[in-house]
Amino acid sequence: MTVLRPPVPAWGTAAPTPPAGSRLGRVVRVDRGLLTVATAEGRARLPLDPRLRDDAAPAVGDWVTVAVAAERVTEVLPRRSALTRTVAGRTSAAQVLAANLDTVLVVDTLVAHARVRRIERFLAMAWGSGATPLLVLTKADLCDDVPAAVARVAEDAVGVPVLALSAVTGDGLAELRARLAPGSTCAVVGPSGAGKSTLLNALAGGARATTHEIRADGRGRHTTTAAELHVLPGGALLVDTPGLRELELADDEGLDAAFADVAELLTGCRFRDCGHGGEPGCALAAALADGRLDPARYRAWRRLRAEAERTRQRRADRGAARRGGAGQRR
């Protein structure tokens, strides 16, 4: 086993107790065939036990057991939260980006106005993880009217604190640091070019991630290629995830929280099987008619709801096909 120095600090609170005869570790990074795992003895690159099932594949932030004698990861311990998306392409497979999180920092940029519909999608994923979302708007130094921009975004980020900051001037960083408690684990998610890697470097007080200037056409560039867990100077832990150009929700777990205003309106529908498409007695139709519900937000909710249902159906069909194939082989 190759041990990486210096010794690793505490890797998060709420650590589970490992089974007898094994050490507790936390996954810092996942590469092909090897995991970088932090234990009380230091960091090590370890292989997975070949007996682990494919559906038990570890993710960054997972707590795992390390066999003392065999020097390999033998078990992924139960997760208390998981940030998950559907993998890019027309598949229903779920990909866990990070596990055992307390907070998800949804990051977008104030340059050329934050994209509210995109933010809603990321917030739905964050709420669905089981962690608490916090919306961070970067590059405030390039925005002419920060309070107005924050107010515009906060109107649709129901129940989520919104912070504006600049990694260049340092404005807003102290408030964000104060929200990251020692021993807590947070993940940073957002589109390419939103300033996630720059934010990590500012919080860490030095270069931890590679950064690039935004492209001339305003689109972001991927700078982080693999998720990695970092320890910040204040003792909080932060998972830097790759920029997501394509984000499809893995399920509808976070929709009611991300669209809490819409979910509250739904309780007023006359019929339980209301399709919310303009049927008689539909509370959403009434809210659209009298201006209580923004039509764009309504369309975004319907789009994400339909997307989650398609993903659920594809996953069910895929499971049925696998079971059918297994039955034929028997």
UniProtKB/TrEMBL annotation:
Its cofactor is Zn(2+). It is found in: Cytoplasm. Binds 1 zinc ion per subunit. Zn(2+) binds at residues 269, 274, 276, 282. Residues 91-247 form the CP-type G domain. Its main location: cytoplasm. Its EC number is 3.6.1.-. It comes from the Bacteria. GTP binds at residues 138-141, 190-198. Residues 309-330 are annotated as: Disordered. Transmembrane segments: none annotated. CDD domains: YjeQ_EngC (cd01854). InterPro entries: AAA+_ATPase, G_CP_dom, P-loop_NTPase, Ribosome_biogen_GTPase_RsgA, RsgA_GTPase_dom. SUPFAM superfamilies: P-loop containing nucleoside triphosphate hydrolases. Monomer. Associates with 30S ribosomal subunit, binds 16S rRNA. One of several proteins that assist in the late maturation steps of the functional core of the 30S ribosomal subunit. Helps release RbfA from mature subunits. May play a role in the assembly of ribosomal proteins into the subunit. Circularly permuted GTPase that catalyzes slow GTP hydrolysis, GTPase activity is stimulated by the 30S ribosomal subunit. Belongs to the TRAFAC class YlqF/YawG GTPase family. RsgA subfamily. This is Small ribosomal subunit biogenesis GTPase RsgA. It comes from Klenkia terrae.
